[in-house]
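User: Let's play a game. I give you a shape written as tokens, and you guess the letters that built it. Ready? Here's round one.
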């Protein structure tokens, strides 16, 4: 079985982003290079050191902890030198410049990956694209289950799962003490879980040469043939289906899950309402280069060094799974 992330340097990802710089601006842009750090934890530390609220620091995406990552942040109305004075072990901070706009989620044009895949006894498949699944990092064990409980309005169950304290049966009150961004993250994880199920179902029915790979909350179906790309809904209360087959697949999933599209309206917590969006079925793996060498960490085995780029929101680990599972 292949191995990844035997050390942080085995998984490197760098954001590619165009920033519009100005001589004067209220936002300061920085490139953060971090090793073995969670993005949100770094934001917390920087905010605390600057004695500002976390919401004044913005990111374009969340990166893995067990990796070496380079990503951009914007900080509102600070002296850049104060940020550069911050010292955190395993973190380098570089000032990029000033601008008039904060960095926004999803602003990344693409991510560049360098991944070392170890413990190989065979070379991997040659691929040009991946099915655009959400991977294990999205689910984190039970994130989708927490999102499911919220969507089904099982608020008592949600509180028990997180061991929240409530008073006189006020489960909603206990939930609303959590950050809105965290609650939305749980709901997004459940939406991602449903999207993965729909895609696996669609590909299983429509691809002659499919192979499968298990992951923590289900399985992936991968195609060895070319697949026609189109956008598949990420469910929300406003989802419209333009594809009859996808609609039928989702209707079956919704019935088994015991939910309806209207359940993504949260009357008890209106700020969590989710209209839904769309996601490409497949994405191209750009500039893929593969080099096979002897694996110094696993005696008698080979390693593969992968270099490639993916659009924002796509998972480099899916490339590994399609090539080597």
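Assistant: Ready! My guess for every position:
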């Amino acid at each position: 079985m292949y191995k990844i992330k035997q050390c942080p340097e085995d998984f490197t990802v760098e954001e590619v982003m165009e920033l519009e710089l100005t001589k004067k601006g209220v936002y300061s842009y920085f490139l953060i290079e971090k090793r073995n750090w969670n993005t949100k934890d770094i934001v917390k530390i920087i905010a605390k050191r600057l004695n500002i609220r976390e919401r004044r620091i913005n990111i374009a995406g969340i990166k893995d902890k067990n990796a070496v990552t380079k990503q951009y942040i914007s900080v509102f109305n600070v002296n850049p030198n104060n940020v550069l004075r911050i010292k955190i072990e395993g973190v380098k901070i570089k000032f990029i410049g000033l601008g008039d706009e904060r960095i926004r989620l999803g602003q990344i044009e693409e991510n560049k990956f360098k991944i070392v895949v170890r413990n190989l006894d065979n070379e991997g498949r040659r691929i040009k694209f991946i099915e655009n699944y959400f991977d294990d990092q999205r689910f984190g064990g039970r994130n989708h289950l927490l999102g499911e409980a919220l969507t089904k309005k099982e608020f008592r169950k949600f509180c028990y799962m997180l061991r929240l304290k409530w008073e006189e049966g006020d489960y909603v009150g206990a939930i609303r003490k959590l950050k809105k961004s965290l609650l939305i993250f749980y709901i997004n994880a459940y939406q991602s879980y449903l999207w993965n199920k729909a895609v696996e179902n669609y590909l299983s029915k429509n691809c002659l040469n499919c192979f499968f790979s298990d992951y923590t909350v289900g399985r992936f179906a991968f195609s060895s043939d070319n697949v026609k790309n189109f956008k598949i809904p990420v469910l929300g209360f406003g989802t419209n289906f333009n594809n009859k087959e996808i609609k039928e697949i989702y209707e079956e999933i919704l019935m088994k899950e015991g939910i309806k599209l209207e359940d993504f309206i949260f009357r008890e917590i209106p700020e969590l309402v989710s209209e839904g969006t769309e996601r490409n079925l497949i994405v191209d793996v750009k500039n893929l280069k593969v080099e096979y060498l002897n694996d110094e960490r696993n005696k008698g085995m080979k390693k593969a060094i992968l270099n490639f780029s993916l659009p924002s929101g796509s998972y480099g680990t899916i490339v590994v799974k399609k090539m080597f599972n």
